[in-house]
Amino acid sequence: MFRWLVQMLRLVWGEPSAGLEEPYAARVSGPVPGSAPTLDAEPTPKPPPKVRSGQALPVDPTPSESAQPRIVLAGNGQNRAPWKVVQPAPSLDPLVVQKFLKERLKALAEDTKHAADAKFVERLLVQLGRDQLDLPPFPDIAQELDELLKQTTTDILQIARVVERDPGMVRRVWTHARSAMYASAPRSLHHAVARVGLDALWRIGMSVCLNDTVFRVEGMQTAAESVRHHGIATAEIAAMLGGERRGSLYLAGLLHGIGELIILQVAANKRQRPPSHSIIRQVSDEVGSAMGVLVVHSWKLDETVVVGVGNYASPSDAPGPGQRTARIVRAASIAAHASRLAREGIALESADPVAEIQELGFDPWKALNRAEAVYNELYETAGPP
After folding, report:
1. In DSSP terms, which residues pair with 351 in a beta bridge?
2. Phi and psi at residue 62, in whole multiples of 5°?
């Protein structure tokens, strides 16, 4: 089990990867279609790593059965684990959140050293200052599919007509329907829809909430695609950890990083000089969760989703009944981050995702295994950027 996990996480010891000096670039670099690693072969033996002062020691690859293995992603001190820097929303009340965002963004604008960075923060302030917040609407396709799947009778042809309007949904439905568990490929899209099943179809449909037709981020598609993939992976892991096939817990995981997509959308304004990666990351880490709370409130989603988005970075701050939701979303987000970063060979300042997921009360092996399976599918279905 431990050898498999080490192979899956592809721990990196030694020098940081070339070209990843910029912290935000390291955090959001997206998967390259077709580049998913093969996990069947044994890892190639490597010489003992050189350990520098202050670097965590490699773990013993053959611990005793009674010992609990400890995984440490260590190396590049410039790249902290992304789940350690995100700030929770100050409140779940949208009026309180809006006031906080205005005050924090004004302070950031005053502290910026570059004109492009200041103008970027000011554009966010303008968007928040309008009487009607300029936030994207809940996607029509996702809403139609949700309403269709709530009906007691199912019209597969009608559902297929909704699915075929979104190319991303079509790709994911076909991937599910052509998996190795079936002897032959589906004959048509409506056959694929019937084969996938209603629960999986609902989850695929909800992923349209992060689709680029809603959040078009021209010029920053790699970063945006990474956020979308992370949301989908987190949602699938959260649903598994919470024992739900579909529902609010899945949406909480899916949308927990949606504030970052709003921020990227504002940063990608083609009429303005682009801001620095460092200010985008700082704004995302400090106010991304708060922005997400405004989005899910504007979409009139239930309290479970609001809590998952606003409090996942600090579950203890969630209202009593919502702490379990926040813990699930956080554990799922850590597993998704760890899986993606390991795939890309990105080393981090000392972080132990296995221990952190365990501390939240969940099985890290199940979470990491589910993350790997979801990313395999996302690599397979990824279209051109």
Report:
1. 73
2. -130, 70
d(CA 211, CA 214): 6
263, 225, 216, 287: which is closest to 117 by C-alpha? 263
Say how many Å lie between the first and final Cα of the chain, rounded: 35
Residue 210 · residue 230 · CB < 8 Å: no
In the chain, the domains with their CATH numbers are 72-136+216-385 (1.10.3210), 137-214 (no CATH)
Strand partners, 73: 351
C-alpha of 40 from chain center: 26
The alpha carbon of 337 is separated from its chain's Cα centroid by a whole number of angstroms, namely: 7
**83-123 per-position pLDDT tens digit:** 988 999 999 999 999 999 999 999 999 998 899 999 999 99
Q: What pTM was computed for the model?
A: 0.75
Question: Residue 316 to residues 138, 170, 310, 325: CA-CA distances in angstroms?
Answer: 29, 39, 12, 11
- Report the candidate in 59, 84, 63 with the shortest Cα–Cα distance to residue 74: 59
Q: How many residues does the chain have?
A: 385
